[in-house]
Amino acid sequence: MKTLPNGRLLEHFGELTTAESTLLKHVASGTPARIADSRPEIGTKENKVRAHFLRFLILGGDAENPVHERGINLRGAYIVGVLDLRGAEINTSVTLEHCLCFQPLYLEDMQLKGSLSLNFSAVPGLVASRVSISGSLYLNKIYSHGTIQLIAAKIGGSIYIRGSYLYGLGEPALLMGGISVGSVIRVEDESKVIGGLSLVGALIDNQLSCSNCTFIAIKGPAFNADNILVKGGVYLTKGFHSVGLVRISGARIAGQLSLRGAHFQENGENCLSAQGMQVGSSLIMTDFPSPLRMAAFNGSHVKSLTDDEKTWGDELSLNGFIYNFINSRIPLTAEARIAWLNSQNPANSGNDDLKGSNSEFRPQPWRHLQKVFEEMGHSEEARKVGIAFEKRLRKVGLVGQGTARWWPGFRWLGLIPHMLYGALTGYGYRPMRLLAWILGIWLFFTSIYWYAAVEQNVFAPSNPLVFQSDAYTTCRKEYGEGWQKRSPDTPIPSGIGNWYTCDALRGEYTGFSPGAYSLDILLSLVDLQQEKDWGPITTTPSPNAWVEFWNWDWGHSIRFLVWLETLIGWGISLLLVAIVSGLTRRKE
């Protein structure tokens, strides 16, 4: 006759306790064995159930004492000893509710064709790595003072943790790295996890939902969901409270990631690390009790970003953060979003006073915000962001780097083109500003030319036939000076001694107009005949170069201003061409 291992026949257990007899009777009929309605505090003959006797029944009993297909349903028992089901194959559901265990439950590599319920029970931990449960796992209202290990477990249904108190005794309270869940994981109803939860690399076919629950870090993160794959959404919503780091880096979430109403409390380090994650729908971060501080979103990609005025704190990391749309409760203004970018850590935002190659300024958040504004149709806000970005580049010393090796006294010259570019056209985002500059420059030079022509007699016809004709003798400056000498007490008539106001100058010759003359010089592509027919009168150059250089009489000064306005005009003309061709917006 084949001999069965010890503990596989009823006769191996000797006299049964009252609770064991009750359990034996109920497992045969498939009804709940209700030893007590609440979890016992001490063990008695009426409530004690030996762990190896319970194992005997969980494994199906023996030929004379079979277990009903409804499985084990034990309530209110005081379980004595170690319940060891490692590697066991169990064909029915197991319910151990309102039970008290003083030894961890060992379920490693167990295969359970049904559900496992430990609701309202107290256990010193659960060792269940690689366990396979075809149904759901119920951990509602349990008290655990040890680590619950579900590493690489396979749960065909869902995991429910409601109103539970899980204390890891200095270690993580919930270890579920690499777990596979066929439906949802829910942690809610004032559950408290002291020691943190690890879901690294978990595969969840539906949802991960944590609300009205607390995660407190002891060693490592308070909540670690790095590299999880969720085919639905992740909801860390109202009442979710973490004390310590929350990690979702590398997560792949097909639905939305909602953090609405969550409270992330940093504990001397980052409060949220969501780097390199992919969210197929929206990232919702609203109604926070306190703003995110020291949160990292580097390299993450979400479809849309929803936030409000309480979302963002300081010390943020946003480099590589990509969002296709902003759906914000904050007014969608460039000023508000620039303040958001400025809330990054000082090194990345360019507020650490380091320059050039020493700076760790990250341009991507600025460029991406500008791009999103443009794609959303907020062109004006996009322009404001672009202008602010150019100013920040100059602040951190990333403009004019081509002159970085020049002699220190000349390095500032590399900034001049950028500053002029900003002043004249707003770095290409304010091209119409150039018209105001043209008007101002034109009026400035016009007023100088007018004064020089009327009061200083500087301008004269450039045609030598007109200038040398005796018919126009009264127009010459020398004639006016002679009049003044002959009649010092008589004012010079306005029609003589000045080519600009001379009455003798025939009307056929182009009259001098200070405004037209200035415009003719300023707009190099326009010919108003003023620059061709008129010019400043200058004295013969001195052979002494030093004397000539410092000869700033009115004639020489006006000639210099004409040259200056010509150069300005050519610069403006090039900018106008760039504006028409669309080359004025910086992309590099």
- Tell the overall outline: rod-shaped
Number of helices in the DSSP assignment: 14
Query: Helix content range of the residues, please?
Result: 25-40%
Distance between the termini: 87 Å
How many strands?
42
- Quickly give the structural class: alpha/beta
Radius of gyration: 43 Å
Mean pLDDT: 88
Describe the main β-sheet briefly: 21 strands, parallel
**Strand-residue proportion:** 15-25%
Show unreliable segments: none
Offer a few descriptive terms:
588 residues; alpha/beta; 9-stranded parallel sheet
Structural write-up:
There is one protein chain. This protein has 588 residues and is an alpha/beta fold. Among the domains are: 332-425, no CATH class; 433-581, no CATH class. 27% of the residues lie in helices and 21% in strands. The chain has a 21-stranded parallel beta sheet that branches. A nine-stranded parallel beta sheet has the order 8-12-16-20-24-28-32-36-38, with no helix packed on it. Strands 11-15-19-23-27-31-35 form a seven-stranded parallel beta sheet, with no helix packed on it. Helix 3 (334-342) packs parallel to helix 6 (379-395), helix 5 runs antiparallel to helix 6 (379-395) and helix 8 crosses helix 11. The mean pLDDT is 88.
